[in-house]
Amino acid sequence: MKVLLFSLVLGLLVASQGEAQTDNSQFTGRWISHYNAADNVETITEGGAFHTFMRYIEFDEENGTILFHFYVKENGECIEKYVSGTKEEDFYALDYAGNTEFRLVSADNNALIAHDINVDEHGKKTEVVQLFGSGDSVNSENIEKFNNAVREKGIPEENIRNIIDNDTCPEE
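Structure (tokenized):
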């Protein structure tokens, strides 16, 4: 009987772990854009809304919000942007370049991999995968995770753009 009770308690404990939400506030800090990929490549080339040079992301789990500090380039000039959003289910809803859903696919202290679904002002849907690093380089394991996420979203490899090598915007 004790074994049966122990098995039941252990089973419930394991099942509850799958439902636990990660506290993303542990990932608040300096993040640098390394690579972007999109099914609509125009959005991640210079002048595109997702050709971004990230500087800082703040996850506020207590209030259910997120804040981004980044730059975009227009005609070669770096334009500073701040965008905030609210947590809804498993994503953050942003009012940026239309409506955007931002999800973390993978996260550790060295890299964040995000998946964005954007529907612009004209109703065009774009899928974006982004790799952010806490420093100027990311390890091969995180690059492989990024490449896997790109494939999973059906984005062609030729639509991957190296962002960090073109980042001439001000540091944080």
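The CA atoms of residues 14 and 128 lie 33 Å apart. The first strand starts at residue 29 and ends at 30.
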